[in-house]
Amino acid sequence: MSKISLYYFKLMVGDAETLVRFYSDAFGMKEVGRFDGLETEEPHIEIFLKAEGGESNQQLALMHYVNRPTPTPGEAAIAFMVDDVDAVVAAALAAGGSIARAAETLEEHKFRYAIVADPEGHKVEVMQFVA
To answer: Phi-psi bin for 41: left (phi > 0), alpha (psi -120 to 50), beta?
Structure first.
């Protein structure tokens, strides 16, 4: 099996900017990245936070979909950084999962990703940085 590590926890939120301030003020987290997906099929923004002085690369991602209602608290997604997205997707399918979003490479962001669903339907992102 390829090397797998937890990359980030993702919260689906209604007001990402307010929550950036909250997690910064309450937990000392700092913004380390932002993905502007406003021109995508499902317009959204993702803001990535990391604990200042943290020893790992694990992050908290706040995701806001422009055209969706504010989510119910507790909705979250999980993402794993992997060496081979396609191999992990195949393993997920073999383990009883399904494909929620087929693998694709986003050259401008230098990563490949897919979204699989576990047998209960929980979505899991698998990501791989590419050169």
So the answer is: alpha
Q: Are residues 1 and 56 in the same domain?
A: yes
Element (H, E) at 26: helix 16-27
In the chain, DSSP finds a helix count (H) and a strand count (E) of 2, 8
What are the tens digits of pLDDT across the range 78-131?
A: 888 889 999 999 999 998 889 999 999 999 889 999 999 887 787 888 899 998
Report the alpha-carbon distance of residue 103 to residue 89 in Å, rounded.
8
Domain shared by 125 and 63, yes or no? no
Asked if residue 67 and residue 14 are part of one domain, the reply reads yes
For residues 27 and 60, membership in a common domain is answered with: yes
